[in-house]
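Case study 2.
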Amino acid sequence: MSRLKKSIAGVLGFLLLLVWIFPFYLMISNSLKTKKEIFNNTLGFPKDLTFENYPQAFQDLDFIKTLFNSLLITVLSVLIIVIFSSLAAYALQRVKSKLSGVVFMMFVAAMLIPFQSVMIPLVTIFGKLDQLNRGGLIFMYLGFGASMSIFLYHGAMKSIPRALDEAAIIDGASRFQIFRYVIFPMLKPTTVTVALLNTMWIWNDYLLPSLVINKEGQQTIPLKMFFFFGEYTKQWHLALAGLVIAIVPVIIFYFIMQKQIIDGVADGAVK
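Prediction:
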């Protein structure tokens, strides 16, 4: 690549970086301004840093309880999706029959069904079963997240030779032991991918919790943020401070999982 092309690529990369960073700059800088200063100087730096917005937003957001609700629902949902999807994919991939092929294609076809087309009958049925709560929400996330997860696991297992299963069977291992100690550890890159995709989706989901969770004190962060913005429609200094607080757990999660994310992507690329 010539020096000119490298320079153009560098400039374009820098411009893309500015475009990506600009919304975060607006959010953070305006969260440190007074209500009056936001409307007078939206794009500029705050003249006097106003940190009082954060304690008020933290209190009104009821952040500790709301964070616990989001963590509980996200962690349990992702854990259940990983366990059941990997087991189902193992059974469908290793048992070669017309039935297993039909069932797998049904899971693949389910990815094409939009949620909006089933949300009304789904909520109606779960309402009759008295399951419009956090437990029912986790069960729904399993149903909606299983299709893509099974598809990813199923594809990854094709690269694992059946000879490993046969060798473990000769050594006296059961099917579950084969999966637990032989197959599942080899699926680490896929597990990281499945966990990340589902974590991002469930953590940021608003529509499904808004239909299922109706009790005060059980709202997730996206659901609570909706009411927070509704309450402070004209008080953007508090709303933006609440938004900054809401994204902090995601940033912490990234830094904690950074090594696993990089290792998972690298292992997947090598395979």
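The first helix runs from residue 3 to 31.
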